[in-house]
């Protein structure tokens, strides 16, 4: 949710996804309510029954947190990808990839 909050300009890649987060009251309120409901849905037995969830251990919670934080790392890596790499990928289309694979398979068959 934090990664999607900002739409980066094409040339400028904003790395600080938390910049200006306190400026929007409604965003903070919704995040706070959502986190509390999700935590309550897995922590309290009567809410587990209502939401159809199962209580999880603290190890499971740490694993879920690490998976969520992993998306921040992936987002940072994507933002650090040079533009010329992206342009190289755009130049190649599916037919080029298919023809490269077919030529590789032909060469492999000829060598046998």
Number of domains: 2
Question: What gap, in angstroms, lies between the N and C termini?
Answer: 52 Å
Q: What's the average pLDDT? A: 77
Helix-strand string? HHHHH
Strand content: under 5%
Outline the low-pLDDT stretches: none
Tell me briefly what this model is.
By secondary structure, the chain is mainly alpha-helical. It contains five helices and no strands.
Describe the structure.
The structure is a single chain. The protein is mainly alpha-helical. The protein contains 5 helices and no strands. It is elongated. The N and C termini lie far apart (52 Å).
Task: Offer a few descriptive terms.
mainly alpha, 112 residues, 5 helices, elongated
What secondary-structure arrangement, pairings included, does this model have?
Layout: H1 25-43, H2 45-51, H3 58-79, H4 83-91, H5 94-111
Helix pairs in contact: 1-2
């Amino acid at each position: 949710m934090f990664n999607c909050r900002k739409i980066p300009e094409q040339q400028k890649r904003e790395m600080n996804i938390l910049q200006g987060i306190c400026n929007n009251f409604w965003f903070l309120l919704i995040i706070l309510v959502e986190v509390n409901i999700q935590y309550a849905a897995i922590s309290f037995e009567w809410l587990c029954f209502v939401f159809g969830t199962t209580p999880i251990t603290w190890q499971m919670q740490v694993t879920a947190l690490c998976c969520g934080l992993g998306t921040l790392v992936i987002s940072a890596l994507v933002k650090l990808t040079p533009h010329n790499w992206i342009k190289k990928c755009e130049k190649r289309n599916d037919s080029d990839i298919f023809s490269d694979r077919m030529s590789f398979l032909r060469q492999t068959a000829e060598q046998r």
